[in-house]
Give the backbone structure.
Amino acid sequence: MGDVSVVEREMGLSPEALSSRMTELEAKVLELEARLPEDRVSIVVFSGELDRVLAAFVIATGAAAMGQQVSMFFTFWGYNAIRRARRLSGKSLMQKMMALMSPRSTKGMPVSKMNFFGIGAKMLRAMMKQKNVSSIEELQQLAAELGVKFVACEMSRDVMGISEQELREGLESGGVAAFLADALKSRSTVFI
Amino acid sequence: MGGIHEKMDFDKELDARGLSCPMPLVKARMELNALAAGQVLKVVATDKGSVADFKGWSDAAAAVELVAQETEAEGENTVFVHYLRKVS
């Protein structure tokens, strides 16, 4: 009891007041802990070129290997990175035109510079192979095996009229809130 | 940490020769998944960037500890040897 009276005398707090302060602080700490970022990385893949998508998948697989939870959000040209076929039925005229001008699959992705009607992309792939760098397709497969979450933007899918049969399997569908829900918990967010 | 010439103990060895970024990390992660906490994985890589990569990994993640890194000559090539301990 001697200790309590010392506390009371020195701090001007009764044991009851002290205990309620502690409870208050504990609740605050829990609240703050819940708001701390997780071991998580979010990546927006907006671009659809081989070099840029490669960067996205290198970061994704690297982060996953380091033990981070990784979410990749594919939107607009980023759809090039998750396409596996081309279907024209069910598309409007403009959607058909867009589909015809977009690559059928990752294999047809251009490079962002020096593409020269696809020759540049073929050269880059050959050079990467020579240096034993994994291809986009291999990195995608690895990302999926490492548990990377793939989310396809519903709004741009709708605008471009892309059907599910045109896309790779294992995709989740979501919008800006789905992206932000992960990004806000992430230590790092990358936009490519 | 280079230049540790006494023989390091390890539980598993990963040959990452010829692989480039990010594959040494990815393969090492897959091997570590199969190890128990406390066990050590030896990674032999030819990718020069792997030195900074494994350092960065152990700095960023509490689950992995970089015990030692060595540079060795292997014929005409230089290999980078990393010892990773799975902490948890």
